[in-house]
Amino acid sequence: MILIINCGSSSLKYQLYTPDLAHVAASGMIAKIGEPEGYIDHFVGHRGEHHRCPVPDHRAAFALMMEYLLSPEYHVIECPGAITAIGHRAVHGGSVFVESVLVDDAVLQALRDCAAFAPLHNPCNIIGIEEAQRLFPGAPNVVVFDTAFHQTVPEHAHLYALPHSLSEDYGLRRYGFHGTSCRYVSQRAAELLNRPLEKLSMVVCHLGNGVTLDAIKGGQSVDTSIGFGTFSGVPMGTRAGDFDPAIIFHLVNERGMRLEEVEEICYKKSGLLGLSGLSNDMREVTDAAAAGNKRCQLAVDVFVYHIRKTIGAYAAVMGGLDALVFTAGIGENSAEIRARVCEGLGFLGIEIDPRANAVAGKGPPNISAVTARAATLVVPTDEERMIALDTVALTEGLPVRQVPPVAKVCHAEAHGLAAR
Ligand code: ADP
Questions:
Q1: Architecture of domain 2-145+400-419
Q2: β-bridge partners, 267
C-alpha cells in the first residue's frame, strides 16, 4: 500500500492507495492540530466518519491516523508493515529540488535549509517525514515539491529586477506554487485532447483558495503567477495578489502600521475577503453579488479581470494558446467564473459552449464551442495521485519524468476529500 501524506501547520491529510494505484483504500484529514476542538474525517469507500477529539501535536495526529487505518472496523491494513512506501507533499524545494526525490539524510538537510522560504510549511513537512520514518522503518519516503515543476521557468521570467547580488545571495526569485496540480492537470488535459503534451501551449487556471495561473509550453512550466512567497499573482481567497510594494512602505512609514500588521493584512485579510468585506469563499461572494451586493460584484470583477489579463499575457509569452484548463475548487465548480473569464478571449480562439460549461464536472471535460480554435477544459486536479505516481516511480528506480500516463490508471473513488 502507498501512503500519501500532506502535513500542514495545523492539519494532516492522508490518502492510502492500493499498490497498483487503482483504488484509494482510505483517506482522511485531521484538522485543528494543537487546538482544543481538533477532529478527524476518515473515509473508506463510501463510508465516512467525523470524530472530534483534541489532537495536541503532529505526533498525536499520526497516532490517530494509524488508529483509524489499523481499526478492524474498516479492514484497511492489518499492520504498519503493509505500508510499502510513503509519498510526502512538500511546499518549498527552493532552487535545489527540480523534481521529486527519495528521502535520505542529505534531502532532509536540504529541506531544512529551504525552511526560510516557507517557515510555516517546510518544518511541518519535515515532521511528517520524520514521523513516517519512525512509524514505517524500512519503507522508502519520497518527497514531491510544489515548487519543482516551475524550476523550468527561464531566468528572464523568474528573476526580479532587484540588485543581482541580493537575488543571488538570498535566493530571491519567482518559485511558484501548485506545481504538482499544474503538472497533473496538464498531463490529463493532453490525454483528454489526445494530443502530445510536447506540442501544446496551455494555460492552467488553478482557482482554489490559493490561485495559480501557469503557462505550460511543451509540458514545461514557462511562467507562473505566484512568486517568491505565496501571495503574488491573481487575488486569492484572503491573499492580495499583485499590488505595488510601495503600499507596504506607505502603510508602515506614513500611516504608522506595524509591519506584522501589514503582513497579516496581505496574507489573511485581502483577496476576495478584503474586497468583498464578506467572505473568502467564492460561493458566498457570487451568491451575494447575484443578490445585488455591490462590493461582492466588484470582488468578482477584480478576480475575473486579473485572471483574463494573465491568460492574455501568457498567450503572448508562449506565442499562442492551444488549451485553457480550469481546475481546483472554483475552476472545477463555478460555471459562472469560467464563463466570465472566457468572455472577450475570442481573439485567442477561446469560445465556450454555455451548455457544456453548465454541466462540466458531470459532463464531458471539453467545454469548447465547436467553432473554437483553442480548447477549454475542466479537469479535476488530483495532487495526491501525482504524488503517488512519483512515489511508485522512484521506489521502483524509474525517473519521475517517465511516470505512466495518468489516464491509463483507473481513477480513484471520487468522494469529497479523496478527490481534493
Ligand atoms: P484550497 O486551495 O483550499 O484547496 P479549493 O480548491 O478547495 O481550495 O477551493 C476552494 C474554493 O472553491 C472556495 O473559494 C470555494 O468557494 C470554491 N468553490 C467550491 N465549490 C464551489 C462552487 N460550487 N461554486 C463556486 N465556488 C466554489
A1: 2-Layer Sandwich (3.30)
A2: none
